[in-house]
Amino acid sequence: MRQAVIFDLDGTLTQSEEGIWNCVRHAADRLGYPHPDGDTLRKFIGPPLMYSFMTYMSMDEDKAREAVQIYRERYTTVGLYENRVFPGIRRLLRTLRRAGWYIGIATGKPQETSEQVIAHFGLDKFFDRIVGPDGGTAHPDKEQLIRKALPESYDEAWMVGDRRFDVEGGLAAGIHTMGVGYGYGSEEELRGAGCEVYAPTVQAVIDTLCPGAKVPEGAFLSMEGLDGSGKTTQIALLTSALQRYGFEVQHSREPGGCPVAEAIRGVLLSRDNVGMTDVAEALLYAASRAQHVHDVIRPAVAAGRVLLCDRFVDSSVAYQGGGRQLGVQKVLDINAPAIESCLPMATVYLDIDHRESLRRRCAASEPDRMEMEADSFHARVEAAYKELIARDPARFVVVDATGSPEDIGREIAGQVLARLMEAEA
Ligand code: TYD
């Protein structure tokens, strides 16, 4: 059976208000109009721009044409990227692809701009056809766009969109229609237009089109570095970058991440436990990891999420293998039953010198038991990290962590996104 689905873009696949609103305000400024209020701005998402400028800002046709041109100048260079993919959309598209669906886009956004947005987010691999009006079309007709986006033949076809124009276009084209409630149209608007199915969430779209489909695997990422290397800041920056691209990110940390492992963390980091032997310490880290892999990491990846973990087995190899001098191989052996084959697809290593680590630790709050170790300890930790990277260069994303947090964040996001997108193909 040949199944096809055509998606609207703005408000259905991407959340584009930031760019759209900035461009409407920009056009208003240039033409001497006051900024529209929030309610009016919301109405701009979905309908053709000419229609919106004329209807919502009371412009005559000539003024509106001018406004559209000013809008597009900014949109095609800047506004385009002030945009985000709705959470879950990547999972939806992967699920459809795997189930063999034909996937198209019919949008009121000009064809070229739409293709740029889709390519920017690395979504182009999912689509068989992208159809938008050419730049000069004032009143694109959704029905015609949908007809053009459909394959030559199909047994079942759906139009999925967030505004009445999408539902009306789908009905006119004679296909099934689904209104999505997470975009810019209300349930009332979509039902009023006659949509066959109302889907309040992305998950409801998946359940309607591919009921019972196996969830495509997510990914496991870890962040490593010496104490004071800036992991916390970089985890936050990477998370917001990945979310902008529609990845569903879940955080965890080691030691810890689930109740059993957090209890072990308390034992490990308590300053009361200074008499702990090196082997006991390594085994406790491995024990907490075994529980964490089982309770948190594997389930998150199986649910299609990107699990981003603050430290993983490399920390044990570096701190216990290097710092405590148990040796790299011994620590890997201790951890083998804890992780089985569960290794991150990418590990970000924030590269700072152990002397810089010391300087940053001294400037920060009270050190924990591990942080209190002598500088020679941290020098060995650093050396062990370097050995791990040399052994498995393909897994590590090594970044110089001495620059500005924003620059470091951009570099990490670029490299990690490239890997995630390659893996989802
Ligand atoms: P972390 O939570 O990263 O410390 P902080 O939030 O203070 O940066 O890690 C706690 C300490 O545990 C850190 O010094 C590194 C150490 N550690 C190991 O020695 N072995 C391990 O396997 C892990 C995961 C951490």
Account of the 3D structure:
The chain is α/β, with parallel strands linked by helices and about 425 residues long. It is built from 18 helices and 13 strands. It has helices at about 15-30, 40-45, 50-55, 60-75, 90-100, 110-120, 140-150, 165-170, 185-190, 200-210, 230-245, 260-270, 280-300, 315-325, 330-340, 355-365, 375-390, 405-425, and strands at about 5, 15, 85, 100-105, 130, 155-160, 175-180, 195-200, 220-225, 250-255, 305-310, 345-350, 395-400. A six-stranded parallel β-sheet has the order 5-4-1-6-7-8, sandwiched between helices. Strands 10-11-9-12-13 form a five-stranded parallel β-sheet, with helices on both faces. The longest helix has 25 residues, at about 280-300. It starts with a strand and ends with a helix. About 45% of the residues are buried. Thymidine-5'-diphosphate binds next to helix 14. Thymidine-5'-diphosphate binds near residues 255 and 371.
Bound molecules: thymidine-5'-diphosphate
What is the subunit arrangement here? single chain
CATH architecture of the largest domain: 3-Layer(aba) Sandwich
Q: Report the CATH C-level class of the largest domain.
A: Alpha Beta
Mean pLDDT: 94
The radius of gyration computed from the alpha-carbon positions, rounded to a whole number of angstroms, is: 26 Å
Percent of residues in beta strands: 5-15%
The count of domains is 3
Biggest sheet statistics: 6 strands, parallel
